[in-house]
Amino acid sequence: MNKNIPDKVINRLTLYHCILSDLINKNEEYVSSKQIAHLLHIDDSQVRKDINLLNNSGKSRIGYFVKDLKTSIEKTLGFKKTKKAIIIGAGNLGTAIANYGNFTNYGLCIKAIFDNDLNKIGKLINGMEIQNIYEVHPTVKKEDIEIAILTVPAQYAQSTANFLVNAHIKYIWNFAPVVLSVPDEVQVWNENLMGNFLQFTYNI
Amino acid sequence: MNKNIPDKVINRLTLYHCILSDLINKNEEYVSSKQIAHLLHIDDSQVRKDINLLNNSGKSRIGYFVKDLKTSIEKTLGFKKTKKAIIIGAGNLGTAIANYGNFTNYGLCIKAIFDNDLNKIGKLINGMEIQNIYEVHPTVKKEDIEIAILTVPAQYAQSTANFLVNAHIKYIWNFAPVVLSVPDEVQVWNENLMGNFLQFTYNI
Hints:
The structure is a homodimer. By secondary structure, chain A is α/β, with parallel strands linked by helices. Chain A has helices at 7-25, 33-40, 44-52, 66-77, 92-99, 136-143, 154-166, 193-201, and strands spanning 30-31, 59-60, 63-65, 83-88, 108-115, 124-125, 128-132, 147-150, 171-174, 187-190.
């Protein structure tokens, strides 16, 4: 469980997981590394190498057992170990993330969503009432929440991050295009959409 | 310009660019690799190594010239070489991306947004009228567009991708949690938010 799996492999494993979920919906029992590789336009030796990192015994002569491989990825990446999070910012991006149903399958449980806009507070998103930002502190304490998903506009990102640090949040998943300054004990993952786009289009 | 810069470095360079933009707003003239490294909680030797990949002459005894370093990153990553794109799906995510003003600074020019929901068509997002999905083909042809940003719900992602392939789109930036099957000549970049999240939280 605690093998050190490189970031890129974790990313690919979640894509394999998407493919396997789709195959289960189609009642497919087996899948080959070639099939997976073909869908992702990568080399099948890469797929086999990644799968070898799992504790997977589900390999037969005609391919991997779809269900076993899927379970094996879930175990390795800890999908069952639920991580509780809150969303800060009930704009379009925060709403999109709150509605992104797929997260729960991967062990991300969004417990609450907050905003400071009085016109939004009290409205429902995916069954959750948008709460006043001042409720963050008691909610984090009561629900023992460590992760905040930050989806406020860029100009409010740093002040909101300071607020989250004071509320004892330990991990910030930052969607604002701003590099946040936080104490060493707080970890930030910059979603950096533009960086992702440039990786994609750099060679166009 | 055509040096082969690894994905992770491209990603970091866009984060440095964020920091430099912020420093310019604060009228700072110089920045050290240590300052940048501190904000990103990485090693300063890494920052210097990344910057050495740029054609940057703006180093002085007291640090890099902020403006020169920013321009140098822009040149290297081709921010001025504008890439035209369309958004498919005017839901919360599509709307968030259309409103994400920062993209234009990085050379991503969103030309139009499409949906098949008659209740949405004709409404404005960031000055753009939401168009009927049937307008994709003529728009792509007329505007010479190669990139589509796919923000439709998961269950419509594959059929929409097929539609985009028929409309001669060459690059799909896919935000749906689905692995798309496309011909070899079309490139897909899976945003894979869940994979990113798991990379972040894997060691929590």
